[in-house]
Amino acid sequence: KMIYYVTPTYPRPEQAPELTRLAHTLMHVPRLHWIIADDQPICSELVLNILRRTNLPFTHISSPKPFIYKGTNFPRGVSNRRAALTWLQENVGEGILYFGDDDNTVDLQLFEEIRNTKKVSMFPVGLIGGYGISSPVVKNGKVAGFFDSWPGSRTFPVDMAGFAVNIEFLKPTATMPYIAGHEEDKFLVSLGLQMEDIEPLADNCTKILVWHTKTVKYKKPTVKINLKQLGELPKYRNF
Ligand code: UGA
Ligand code: MN
Known about the structure:
Elements: E1 3-9, H1 15-26, E2 32-38, H2 45-54, E3 58-62, H3 78-91, E4 96-99, E5 105-106, H4 109-114, E6 120-122, E7 125-126, E8 133-139, E9 142-147, E10 163-166, H5 183-190, E11 198-200, H6 202-205, E12 210-211
Parallel strand pairs: 1-2, 1-4, 2-3, 6-11
Antiparallel strand pairs: 4-10, 5-12, 6-10, 7-8, 8-9
Helix pairs in contact: 1-2
The chain binds uridine-5'-diphosphate-glucuronic acid and manganese (II) ion (MN).
């Protein structure tokens, strides 16, 4: 089965390094189709160049967030993930869907594990929340509950990186809401997912194969250096 790796992304100084690191992981994975969903009115040239250099099969689509979503606690990557979902529903009949953010860190073993997902598989995500891990808890081979520092009245308190979905299990009603913190739960509920449907992976959810890494944001310099001494500076670009 093909894995459809859906990555929402948006422009900022950290974008090229995040996508480069992710690209260099995905290039090791057989039968993977990378869907990059750009939070932009048009597909970014920088992103397209990175995609082209991977030699992976890819789809590059753009769908910017509505203008009302500004500030700090807005739902991230929803409009673009929705566009990717629609693309999958219209173009792909079978395979595995995985929502892989542009800044996460993934072990290659994860891809082998999710490839056989029948409906929805789940596994631990490292470096997340107050507990440093978010994971389903498995009892007798079945998911019995969730270990997550923010239950937040969610049916499935999991991170976006903590599950994979068989595309045949995607309903036409499958959607992701614009509600910060509830994107993954409401998406899984929209699939009609039941607890007993969940397939625990990664050694009964004991092995961490994906991490919610965060890159420190670029800061403006606080000291001035004498640029005149250097003469004319080159025009720096990504590659
Ligand atoms: C966490 C989850 O891992 C996300 O999947 C979830 O969408 C997000 O919380 C949320 O609930 O809002 P976090 O690390 O806090 O993610 O957020 P970011 O990494 O900043 O953004 C998640 C994804 O959306 C990234 O791939 C990012 O590139 C993308 N994004 C972010 C956009 O497409 N547009 C934005 O304006 C911001
Ligand atoms: Mn992130």
